[in-house]
Amino acid sequence: MLKEFKKFIAQGNVMDLAVGVIIGSAFGKIVSSVVNDLLMPLIGVLIGGIDFTSLSFKIGEAEVKYGNFIQNVIDFLIVAFCIFLIVKFVNRITSRMDKIMGKEEEKPEEPAKPDDIVLLEEIRDLLKENNK
Predict the structure, then answer these.
(1) What is the pTM of this model?
(2) 1: exposed, middle or buried (Cβ count in 10 Å: 0-12, 13-18, 19+)
(3) Which of 35, 41, 58, 75 is the most exposed, having the fewest neighbouring CB atoms within 10 Å of its CB?
């Protein structure tokens, strides 16, 4: 069992995933700082000096902090947009590299036609030849 575990951990996919999680975590901190320290204060000024993190209301003894929710939604949207831009950039670079290297996009193979369709096409072609 220990050997299997070592083999599993040493696989490239697991190591790639670990690196991706670590980099993603660091990237998340950067985006959170941009949102919390740069964007949200500016948005707050534009809409009248509202600090989103302090937005809340009480229901009985419970305090609902919906400002934190708004903050997290904006964080998510910015992270998702940044990831979209990165993926788009990588795809563009990859396609350009493929063109430079002479690789063409593989076209999916057409599914094989059923035998009855092939037979009907052959009959059609023979009839066309006889009518000429």
Answers:
(1) 0.49
(2) exposed
(3) 58
